[in-house]
Amino acid sequence: MSFSTSARRDTGATATDLSRWNDSPVGSVGSHHLAGQRRRSMSFSESIQSSARTGQNPLDMSAQEMRGPNGFRRSFIQHKSLKLHGRRANFLTRNFNEFLSLYGHFAGEDLSEEEEGQEQDQDDEDEESALLHVIRHEYTRQQQNRGDDSASVAIEDDEYGPETMPHHKVKKKTSTTKAVLLLLKSFVGTGVLFLPRAFHNGGWLFSTVCLFFCAIVSFYCFMLLIDTKTKVGVDGYGELGARLFGPKLKFTVLSSIVLSQIGFAAAYTVFTATNLQAFFSHVFRLEYSLVFWIMVQLVFYLPLSLTRNIAKLSATALLADVFILLGLVYVYYYSSYYIFQHHGIASDTMLMFNKSDWTLFIGTAIFTYEGIGLLIPIHESMEHPNQFKPALLYVILLVTVIFVSCGLVCYAAFGDKVETVILLNFPSDSIFTNAVQLIYALAILLSTPLQLFPAIKILENKLFNKNASGKHNPRVKWHKNYFRSVVVLVTVLIAWLGANDLDKFVSLIGSFACIPLIYIYPPLFHFKVHEHDRALQAVDLAILLFGGAVMAYTSYQTVSLWVG
């Protein structure tokens, strides 16, 4: 056979193979550009699958494959993908990255940022994403054949890494146990430390009964929201309002979310300033006003608020939660120690019902149950959504026990002398007290930008074009930066206005901003969906009227007490 004949036959075979590959289904991609990307990625995938069929490690490309077009580049991408995704992320990293991803889907709204995750060129992203699935699948299969089950776990868990969280939506379905942990993180925060003073405002018996009542009604309203969202078939809280009542109610719902998140951030700012003031006064004898310590926090808030990729806040969120846990343990320890080793229960100054300030407790109690914005994304992420109800019930009962016990123990220890920030009741000359004041202040300082993130993104989506990206347009990026800075400045200004009466400030946030999100909108939406069920509508209407009345009365009373 002559050389020309051989060349023609080889060329013909190659042309036939290319024709078959070209005719293979690409999926209804919708554009020649995307189809071209798909063909390119398929050529890479075929190389890996070919190696796998011959029993070769998919990362060990043959000499022929390496000599082919872009062979070295394909080998580099394959090794890079395995390096990023082929090892198991540790437990804390996985869980905190997943928890942060929920804030990108806060209240079911799409708060993703177009700039996020676009550090590389588009071609690099296309190649890596196309290779990723095949590489991991073949590598895991070979590792399992060798008896290494950890590889499959690593492949499952890598979806929670920041590199694979575009738009912050949880890819892998979450187990019920992990959902419980996420719910606990959602509900247990700084609000629990406001409860000792709140128990004084309401009286220990009234406060205990009220907290359990709020827990029951809140749980029912949480389930109303989830059930209504599922039945209507929408993703977001605001979108649910738009579907049932039009765009005006969507605006109202999103406004309540923005107000509540800014209110949380402002209250946290005052809390942090109070602890920093006490710490530097006792340890370094530096006497500065509360306003000074509020303004100092701008140094941290401004740069952190400009973060586009929320996964970059994972380290600060993890550190903040560790500090909060340590602080809560110390609060329980010292309050109990104070009771048993010193003065006993301060029964002579404890009130069962405080008829003058009881309305302040209601707002604080609602403020404490601040996790409603994360219920929808947690429910959507669950592998078994039917187990969400018992999981939420368990979490609500657990956090209510924590809230009641913390409030009772601290109030029993210090009586009517309990401070708005309970840490101020602890001995100022104790190194442990000073350390807890500092780490708790740092914890809230680091977590406040996370509270502001949903508010900033909702406002940005309203004010800026959804497709306006600062990735390739510095002008758009700086306009957004200026806007975010303004939101932070407004938050700090609100904190300054409420600094001298933190307990009343927290109560007002709970009464005016949080009550609608829990006790008004969910029964209103449920009422609309179940138009033919009079019994359910009667219950919805009762909760709706109750929520409206409590919101109006407690807000009015709180403002009156504040001004008076």
From TrEMBL:
Alphabetic keyword roster: Membrane, Transmembrane, Transmembrane helix, Vacuole
Annotated compartments: Vacuole membrane
Homology family: Belongs to the amino acid/polyamine transporter 2 family.
Species annotation: Kluyveromyces marxianus (strain DMKU3-1042 / BCC 29191 / NBRC 104275) (Yeast)
Membrane topology per record: Multi-pass membrane protein
Region described as Disordered: 1-69
Gene Ontology annotations for the cellular component aspect, listed alphabetically: vacuolar membrane
Predominant subcellular localization, coarse grouping: membrane
Any Pfam family hit: Aa_trans
PANTHER family, sorted: AMINO ACID TRANSPORTER (PTHR22950), VACUOLAR AMINO ACID TRANSPORTER 3 (PTHR22950:SF530)
TM region(s), chain numbering: 179-199, 205-226, 251-270, 290-306, 318-340, 360-379, 391-414, 434-456, 481-499, 505-524, 536-556
Domain of life the protein comes from: Eukaryota
Feature: compositional bias, Polar residues: 13-22, 42-59
Domain Amino acid transporter transmembrane positions: 173-559
Any one GO molecular-function label of the UniProt entry: L-tyrosine transmembrane transporter activity
This protein's encoding gene: AVT3
UniProt-recorded name of the protein: Vacuolar amino acid transporter 3
